Amino acid sequence: MNIGLTHYLVLSVLLFGIGLYGTLSRRHAIVVLMCIELMLNAANLMLVAFSRYVFSHGGQAIVIFSLVVAAAEASVGLAIIISFYRQRKNIDIKDIDLLKW
Amino acid sequence: MGMNIAFWVLAATATAGALMVVSMRSLFRAALGLILCFLSIAGLFITLTAEYLGIVQILIYVGAIAVLIIMSIVLTRDIEHSNVPSPYKLPAVLGALSFIGVAIWAILNTKWDNSTGMAFLPISPKTLHTESIGQMLFGQDSLVLAVEIAALLILVAVIGAISVAKEK
Lengths: 101, 168
Prior knowledge:
The complex is a heterodimer. Chain A is an all-alpha fold. In chain A, 76% of the residues lie in helices and 0% in strands.
């Protein structure tokens, strides 16, 4: 059986689902950030698969912008985590409630 | 045939890396699983004839983001072994499983129009994918404004990250 669009889509849904599970169920902030990166990567894989099988190169151009946004998100997110760690010596998701009222 | 083997091997390593991220107790091993997953996805990009994106994936994700994540793990070292699940483990499992089920059902029940993709373009030096991505980003009637906005976004994000993480 030849590899087609469906294989890539199912694989990317699996990766996204694992990332979703990790994001919802982990308490360590860095692990949550890593799972968000995983979900972004799954979305990129899906875009590239569509650009290979259904559309033309537009999908690959969008993936480049998605990479830029992922890099910005990772740098700002990790900076916030480091700054929070300096204040509280802890990066449990449950304790990050500075904006709660 | 070779493509089939490459797909299955890369898909298995990508899924194994993703499972390592959510299951390892040690944060450092979770980060290594994330790197394994990124590298496999770069390989999958190459099997999809997106070789430029595969190389960019290795440079940015494996080279930059993974190093950032490992640096933050090292900087917060005394809580390294706290990769424990929260009390919401069961709802998370149910949510992720129902998402996977619905999405796979939708994928299998959609009739994809495979007529206009690159799969049927002849592969010749004139249809280099990198060149046509460059034309799409910088050529005429292109996305060059979006490229400039993305550059501004990453500049602002990096300056913001420096000012947030700076010692007060």
